[in-house]
Specification:
Blueprint lengths: L18 H17 L4 H21 L9 H31 L1 H34 L11 H76 L4 H137 L1 H52 L2 E7 L16 E3 L6 E6 L2 E6 L2 E3 L5 H16 L4 E6 L6 H5 L8 H15 L4 E13 L2 E4 L8 E2 L2 E2 L7 E2 L6 E2 L3 H18 L3 H5 L3 E12 L5 E10 L13 H25 L11 H5 L1 H4 L4 E8 L6 H16 L16 H6 L44
The structure holds adenosine-5'-triphosphate.
Length: about 800
Amino acid sequence: GEPEPGMARPAPASPAARPFPHTGPGRLRTGRGKDTPAGGDEDSSARSAARPALAQCRALSVDWAGPGSPHRLYLTVQVENLKEKLISQAQEVSRLRSELGGTDLEKHRDLLMVENERLRQEMRRCEAELQELRAKPAAPCTGCEHSQESAQLRDKLSQLQLEVAENKGMLSELNLEVQQKTDRLAEVELRLKDCLAEKAQEEERLSRRLRDSHETIASLRAQSPPVKYVIKTVEVESSKTTQALSESQAHNQHLQEQVAMQRQVLKEMEQQLQSAHQLTAQLRAQIAMYEAELERAHGQMLEEMQSLEEDKNRAIEEAFARAQVEMKAVHENLAGVRTNLLTLQPALRTLTNDYNGLKRQVRGFPLLLQEALKSVKAEIGQAIEEVNGNNQELLRKYRRELQLRKKCHNELVRLKGNIRVIARVRPVTKEDGEGPEATNAVTFDPDDDSIIHLLHRGKPVSFELDKVFSPRASQQDVFQEVQALITSCIDGFNVCIFAYGQTGAGKTYTMEGTPENPGINQRALQLLFSEVQEKASDWEYTITVSAAEIYNEALRDLLGQEPQEKLEIRLCPDGSGQLYVPGLTEFRVQSVDDINKVFEFGHTNRTTEFTNLNEHSSRSHALLIVTVRGVDCSTGLRTTGKLNLVDLAGSERVGKSGAEGSRLREAQHINKSLSALGDVIAALRSRQGHVPFRNSKLTYLLQDSLSGDSKTLMVVQVSPVEKNTSETLYSLKFAERVRSVELGPGSRRAELGSWSSQEHLEWEPACQTPQPAARAHSAPGSGTTSRPGSIRRKLQPSGKSRPVPV
Ligand SMILES: Nc1ncnc2c1ncn2[C@@H]1O[C@H](COP(=O)(O)OP(=O)(O)OP(=O)(O)O)[C@@H](O)[C@H]1O
């Protein structure tokens, strides 16, 4: 425009110093060639536009200040060029915008967003369908044939759901990426808009300056003198303008570079978008596949549900039909119950009446009860008195009966004979060996249990005794036969039970038995204990035991402190004529345990004394002496009964086999004592005035138990085997002889003389007896050395405590 008033105008420069002809166009050309290498066409057009302008300027350089001055022309041309350039730049920018600009991207983005939205909606629809399917109540499908398939479909469905969720995630990632790119594009667009605005401003500024320049030129033309100065000013200003132009060109250049970069970025984004497109297409294909799968699963589920529904309906129909039937039955029952109720009502009425009547009675019951109690008490008192009277009478009768029983018992024993002889045949045992010698030689009469047949050297011999027990007889059977004797001991009688027979014939077994199957000794004591206990209310009893042994006519105490000491039998100094053994230990016993302790102690004494106990025991007499002392609590009457249980020494005829030394002595002593026993029994039976008790220690010791009212039982033990028939024959002869002297209580034979030891050994039967019922078998056999279960076995060491002497 016009220079400011008062502003100093520069002096006009010489044409040689003018900057324009040298610097302006040259610089313009250099700047163009240097700064815009990419815009070749635009540059060339600008250059072609600038060249005539320059030529015009040179041609007009004569007159710079005039209206057609070259400088003005040059500036006009330059301004025109700049305008053109600006327009082309704007066009370029709009082209770029239309070609690759935000519109397409936006469109693309919009498309993608629409597509995304559509996919989202589809997903939502699928999810809603799934929810709906899940929400449907699952019918119970136990045992259904489709249940497995349904489970598989459910699994597949859950897998598809997982994949859909993954795809969803991927889609949302892609969305995010697209969003980011869209944001970046918007940014670029914003920057471009800013650039364009800047350009427009610049353009406006330049055109404003051009206008000012025009006006200045015009005013300069009008004022010719300062024209030169003004021209100079314009030249100066023109250089400034040129500089600004070059700056704006540089800026343009920079913008173009940025546009190129943005193009590159856009290209990349396009590629990414393409790959996103592809991915989306893939995902859509997958989603379509999943949808198809879901559709199929849905179809299957629907089918299943349909069939389940049908089943359910069928079941409901059946249940309904059943319920109807049951209902009908219940109705019928109800009708029956109603009828019953109708019939029961009168009964109920009667019951109610009864109940009321009873209630009335109950109210009056305490009174009635009191009265009844009174009368009952009176009756009971009367009854008690009567019972007491009866009891007294019964007690008197009982005592009388007791006396009578005792008398009867004694009479029975007397009738049976005070001396009885029974035989017991032991079974064939392993110790008898095998072969003809071990065969059975003993038979029995099936109709008479007092007869025994023996086959001796082919000849049958029979014997009659009070009773014969076969090998089948148990310990209890034998004991039953003797228990009457044992109970009489409680009444004050003396009793002697002997076991007689050869070694190994079963004497010890019968007397002592085995721990599992005890014999007479233990059973007798048990019986005594129980009988004594029964009478405990009226009687006070004391039971004591002693154990002694007679070996070679020497008496020894088996329970004493010094068992080797020989004891003597003496008359009581009180003049009663009773015998006693000074030093013989007596133990008070109250139970079977006490008895066992006594036996054990006795055995200990024997084992310390003898090395071969079994051998010794079969050669000695063993005595168990049980004394029962009783006091009648009411009368003070005293009784004493003695039970002698004797396991005699073996009766075999050792003397005959030519034994010498100690064996001969033993045999002589045994024979002597056994003969003495036979003599005593014979004398007793024949009621002789003199009974030779003193002939042996055995008979002397048992004197008081063998005389008077005493009762004696001899158990003859018999071995059944062939090899022992000689000894069996002699034992049975001895037994029969003892028995045969008994002719009855009033007619005893007194003429029977004393038995010599020879008689004991060689006594022959007086007469031949009937033939045996069965033929005996013969068998060889060894001796009888083994003695398991022997009576003396009872006396085994045990180390138990010593019983307390009485
Ligand atoms: N009735 C029976 N039942 C079963 N076994 C028996 C019977 N009698 C005896 N015995 C057995 O026969 C064998 C000899 O018996 P035991 O020792 O009692 O004879 P013993 O006559 O006492 O001999 P010793 O004179 O040597 O003492 C034993 O093994 C015993 O168990």
